[in-house]
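User: Predict the structure for this protein chain, please.
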Amino acid sequence: MEIKLDPSRDDLPLMANTSHMLVKHYVLDLEVDFESRIIEGTIVLFFEDGSRFRKQTSSTKETCQLASNKAYKFRTPELCHIPVTNARTTFNVGYSDFVICDKGEEDTSDKDGNHDNQEQASGISSSKYCCDTENHGREDFLLVLDCCDLSVLKVEEVDVAAVPGIEKFIRPSKLTTVSEELRNEIVHELVTLPAVHWRKQLDYFVRCSQAPSCGELFFDTDTWSLQIRKTGAQTATDFPHAIRISYKTKPEGQSVTWTSDQSGRPCVYTMGSPINNRALFPCQEPPVAMSTWQATVRAAASFVVLMSGENSAKPTQLHEGCSSWHYYVTMPMPASTFTIAVGCWTEVVPKKWSSNDLMIERPFPLSETDCRYVGVCSHMEYPCRFQNAAATTQKVIPHRVFAPGCLKGVCQEILLRLLPPCLSAAHSVLGSHPFSRLDILIVPANFSSLGMASPHIIFLSQSTLTGRSHLCGPRLCHEIAHTWFGLAIGARDWTEEWLSEGFATHLEDVFWAEAQQLAPHDAEEQRELRACLRWHRLRDELRNSPEEMQVLRPSKEKTGHVSDSGASVVKHGLNPEKNFMQVHYLKGYFLLRFLARRLGDKTYFSFLRKFVHKFHGQLILSQDFLQMLLENIPEEKRPDLSVENIFQDWLESSGIPKPLQGARPPGADCGLVRRVDAEVTKWMRLNQRPRKRRRREEEEVFEKLLPDQLVLLLEHLLEEKTLSRPTLQTLQRTYCLHEQDAEAAPGASLPGQPAAHRVVTQHCQKAPSRNGTP
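Assistant: Here is the predicted structure, written as structure tokens:
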């Protein structure tokens, strides 16, 4: 049955035909205009075709068949008329079918001669051509890129052969004539340069990106993609391997957010949109398209540009009032991890530098000539820190903190002090930091989460600063954990979010206990208290969410499968409820907690370091982790454990995982949890007393609670049917709820509402009030 995909509520399409051509490097040259709220410029893409690289993903056997082989309409580099006919194409991707439908002769071009990406209200696109586009009965090969809400102005082939000095990349026998084959050979030699020559490689990428055009290419856009072809290029091998796209974003594009910071100054940043970066630049979104990039960004001189980049960029003044910033990345990663933030940020520096601080901050850059290799890596070649002996011993990488000026003081007091111990703790648990440096940015108040990690940069919500170190520390540890799980090791299928969020949630407790240098008993007590909290949240979420969205591996045996072109969909990727769910965090956490307890912490974390060393720089599926783990478990400890059983009990079923059903709840033997239980009993006793009697008797004496204990107390109170108004007022006075952190305080900015807010709103509706207000 053919099902039309509703982009407003269902699955996210990944349209790029990565099985035919794969982007290896992006060069962006952009200008940020805050008056028009537009980012405009060019992006140059350097490709390898399917005959050059080995497919890294399994593929379904379905093929895309044309219902009509008639002519197609493209934006042309010269004035001409190409008749358009209606076409209807079914595109099979294995586990979710959708329809690509055409709107007929209607032309919705804007003044630039470009589609406005709003041709249809339903369906996935208005395409006149097939997505699976190697050469299925058509004359020309079609390159498909992921693209949404962009005004594409021009697409052209880059004449890389015209770059001075490029002859060193060409074999002498091929120097006679300039041809498509020669240009593609130059690109191939450039993208496959040994990692030791990474500086030279980046230099020539920039030179090639500035080379003249050797011809414009036909292109067209629809809701989700940009399609490009060249007359006479019938295969991916024949297609240009270096293309330049001139484009501009739209103010309403979902990949970036234009807003004001806490000081009222304008800013723009990528805030983790469900559609990733396709409304920021045309790209290949599927995770398998792991690429490097470099970007030059121009903005008014008063602005600071932060970006995913290995270098700590400094501004270059171009002319009065305008500066340029340049960043680069040499570790291949999915384009979805690219992040940018432009604003009037203030760099927060310590009030005083000590000699120890200066020693810690000393970087260990990768050198082309002096690099001692300490092991063999399994990933594609790049300048890897795991192979640099100096980098492997670096506990604290260089880091900077940026924030609006009004938050400088609190960042100095809280965040700057937490960074070194948290980074050092992560290193002690997992070993080498995958990235050479780190920026932290306190993002505007409209940020919808507590944090987001990207290569070399972490966004933190200002809410993390309200709870002192209690909230900021664990959240910082969570985002640092993503450096390993989510970035250095990525999920090959985005539906397996638990491989990122489950690991980060499990590791944040371990990192945070290590950062505080807690004694073993105190660390265990803290971890059990937080496990108890998560157990309450998991049960609550599973009671109030659709069953189909509680499954961590929704595609089951088809996880990781794509169409023959490389296109696929992300299950529930556009469902608005997904942004408010934590099931991947929580069920993933409890699975890892279960496995760690089965092995013992010492054995488990020793294994985890081995896993990180083997799989960093690569994409994985759940079975890659589970199979390696089970191989490291002694036979006597895994009589009932198998990959299949774990899939069935934990990853492919809704509700409470089977091993947790009937088991003792987390925190049952935890002293910190028992103290909360005792306080709950006092509050219930107070709540049940008649009001007059309550005044005559001695008031209850409540114990001071840790922040996590307070949240657990509030979670217990949420389970009560009725709390009287005097009880709520006493609760507020006793714990000063409005002064608590973002997990407890009413009105805090979180994906889900904080505990105190839910207690007050839930029970005030039931309690009588003299003036009718809570």
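The longest helix spans residues 520-543.
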